[in-house]
Amino acid sequence: QVQLVESGGGLVQAGGSLRLSCAASGSIVNPNYMGWYRQAPGKQRELVAIITSDTTNYADSVKGRFTISRDNARNTVYLQMNSLKPEDTAVYFCNFRRLVYPIKDYWGQGTQVIVSS
Question: Are 37 and 54 in contact (CB under 8 A)?
């Protein structure tokens, strides 16, 4: 089992920045990827960014503004969010995905990000 704890959410004005952190603990297995998803009210949960050992992938809507990184020694993934827009408002969820059998996703409880205009 993997436990994920997010932090760093909050209220920020448009154009501001936030840095989200997610610490994983438990049965960390490789290979894996970690990532961030978000869900706005009434919307589907969507991928924001994911990171493997050496690659990253971003949603088009956040490219150039958000940066995902990870510290494997600490089993922690970060999401640096710059130039925030009101449409970034959502609950952000940390994700850990095993890439070895059994393939399984683990989720954090979520951290709220509110971007005001």
Answer: no
